[in-house]
Protein: LicD family protein
Organism: Halopseudomonas pertucinogena
Amino acid sequence: MQFNKSYRLLRYLNRSHSRVSRYGLGALAWLGTLAFTRSATLAGLMRRGFVEDDFRLAFRRAAWLARHVLPALDLFKDPFFDFTMETSPAERMALKHFLERYKSNAKPWAYATDHLYLMAADIHARLEDEINGLAMHEEVSAFYDTADTALSALAVPATDLAPVRKERDDDFSKADAVEALRDLSQALPLAQWPWYVISGTFLGLHREGGFLAHDYDIDIGINAEDINIDALITALDAYPRFATKKVDLHIEITQDKQGKLHLRKVPALMKLIHKNGLNLDIFIHHTENGRCWHGSIIHRWENTPFTLVKRELEGVTVQAPADADRYLTENYGAWRTPVKEFDCTTGTPNLVASRNFLSVALFVKRLAVFGETNARDAEKLRRALISSGVIRAEGQRIRVVRRFEHQPILEKDAA
């Protein structure tokens, strides 16, 4: 089962769960994790996910642990999961020890890319705690060395680029989607909150006249200059049919002339769960340097700035990009041809990789997994990462572009 390809599974995990379920599963998770990992720290981490009613994260983490102990137990087919999410330094250290213990069960590239996640999380955590930036030359060099080790273990892309994939079932509940969209229009009236439909939701509206049958969420956009993020969260919290699960921040790493690294964060994505279990993503759109972009901690999709017009989606008045062809072409390329199996990394021409360490770790992991499972997507991603300046080709080999290693102060800068 592919974790993000089953709407029914996501619907169950997203819903609110009873106290009995949360604490009962939390206790079982604690016992099971302790038995397999021999780590009270990891057992506590697993229990916390269930008790705090984040079943989606808890089950993904449980599946990640299970497939490292017994590779045959790859229940959810979720290879890109960031297992460092919402972890403390002590928990990441316990995860590192766990990886070392089961190193023999992993392929070299898998072991290296898992360590990249941990290294990226540690670097980001240190930068977040340091207001004036840090010179982290040894940590950064070690990160890039590990990334290159992972890339060196990859096979040369195959010449046969025939796609290998299983189409997603048409199991999306349009009734749930319509109910959630109507409630969103009540919770956030357009006159006060000028939101609009984007991405797959807009594609369904414009091409199919409604929701896509193989979708699994609703994609919404709103411009950063039109809102106060705290007021938006308050408005949604006041509407009982929605729960704000998470507010993701887009992270950019910069380096000053003294070689210190700085972490810049801006609100990027609000994850909402409707009472019926349907997921809604509200992407905060920012306009910079003549481009309109939205994203997450690892992704950034850029568009030509667009104006909005009112449309009708399943009987609900919404706003949408006025120049539909330009917007959809930038997002999908040949958008008129239906595609039931879609990847937001390889299927979006307007993707720009975020300039942070976790983004690099995830894209290296994706390249490694695609290299083993889907030659066409591996080559598409390889070209996209070279174009975005994440990796560079050196003959038949590829290496990570080293952006944030030590940069000596120039005499003219010191003067």
